[in-house]
Amino acid sequence: MFPLKDNIPTDRFPVVTVALIVLNVLGYFFFQHGTVTLGDPSSRDYLQNLFEYAYIPRELVDGVQCVPDQTFSAVTCAKGVTGQPPVVLTIFAAMFMHGGLLHLGGNMLFLWIFGNNVEDSMGPVRFVVFYLLGGLAATGLQTVIDTSSAVPNVGASGAIAAVLGGYLLLFPRARVITVIFIIFFFTIVELPALVILGFWFVQQVLFGYFGLNSAGDGGGVAYFAHIGGFAFGLLAIRLFASERRRRRQIERVGGLT
Questions:
Q1: How many domains does one find in the chain?
Q2: 239 lies in a domain?
Q3: Which domain holds residue 110?
Q4: Which of 21, 42, 161, 173 is the most buried (most CB within 10 A)?
């Protein structure tokens, strides 16, 4: 399932959501030196930047710095390595980095569809805090699951997962125009957000489970970061969102049934 648009209007322009999208796009093309090809970028500049600024769980857990060899095929982790950014910086930098154009595009689509309404429910300042804390929660769970990992972690999907969790509680009956692919065919339907986001979360849990039970091979996707972010969104959204604003958003579409 691939969402395209929801039916919840916003009271004001989602300045933070748009700013986050812009920062992610600029970060990919100008900071990461990403390419416009549909495959994963593989230039030396991109890979060097990836190992310098992406978050690596082992660096936080063991207090080391991880650097690749000349061919980027092996990683050495040791203490006392100079010239590497502090791990705290990489935790936040990784939230604005991506592993390819499809990764970037998919994340930004989800952020735009669901982020504007969540931002509208709490205001721009609270939304920034909510988004970043969601990203930290995502990073935290992924780290706990694999403390020895020396694989660079990048992507806004953990923070965006928090937005999805928050949206699910705020607007479970919102209607989402969705593309459903069936082998070589597709159809466009309108489904409740509860179905779309509930199905997405179940996917993450299943893929994460199977990844743990297949020598930890999750196909390069940090599923537990998605789970951690989503859980944070579910648990924290009531602390950030305004019930008055939420009701006003719902009333603007004549209520949700």
A1: 1
A2: yes
A3: 2-251
A4: 161
The answer as to whether 132 is a domain residue is yes
Q: What is the CATH number of the domain that holds 187?
A: 1.20.1540.10
* Per-residue confidence in pLDDT tens, the chain, 257 aa: 789 999 998 889 999 999 999 999 999 999 998 887 766 677 888 888 998 999 999 999 999 999 888 888 888 898 877 778 899 999 999 999 999 999 999 999 999 999 999 999 999 999 999 999 999 999 999 999 999 899 999 999 999 999 999 999 999 999 999 998 887 788 899 999 999 999 999 999 999 988 887 654 455 789 999 999 999 999 999 999 999 888 888 887 776 65
Write out the chain in H/E/C secondary structure.
Answer: CEEEEECCCCCCCCHHHHHHHHHHHHHHHHHCCCCCCCCCCCCHHHHHHHHHHCECHHHHHHCCEEEECCCCCCEEEECCCCCCCCHHHHHHHHHHCCCCHHHHHHHHHHHHHHHHHHHHHHCHHHHHHHHHHHHHHHHHHHHHHCCCCCCCECCCHHHHHHHHHHHHHHCCCCEEEEEEEECCEEEEEEEEHHHHHHHHHHHHHHHHHHHHCCCCCCCCCCHHHHHHHHHHHHHHHHHHCCHHHHHHHHHCCCCCC
